[in-house]
Amino acid sequence: MKKLYYSIGEVSEITSVEPHVLRYWETIFKDLSPRKNKAGNRTYREQDITLILKLKDLIQNKKYSTAGAQKKLEEENSGESAPKKNSELPAEAKKDLNEVRVFLEKLKEKL
Question: Is residue 38 classed exposed, middle or buried when 0-12, 13-18 and 19+ CB atoms within 10 A define those classes?
């Protein structure tokens, strides 16, 4: 299900990252800055979710510190990083798979 904007709850469910962690990451990573609507609620876009999944992979899976993850992102943005391994899924594919997982879990609960 593609949407233009996602709430923090939806992003948390899609990425399996708690909302308080998402808010904390906003304070550290300048590239993660979701807009706020008139009510003051965060609205995340597809590119924000892709970045969150990348951060989650670096911090939670590869055990980078937040400073190390920030440095890695800066290297990737400037083109200095090593090429990706073919076995790694792109962040967009991971996001899509997580959305499917959430959908299937909700469907399973209804059965």
Answer: exposed
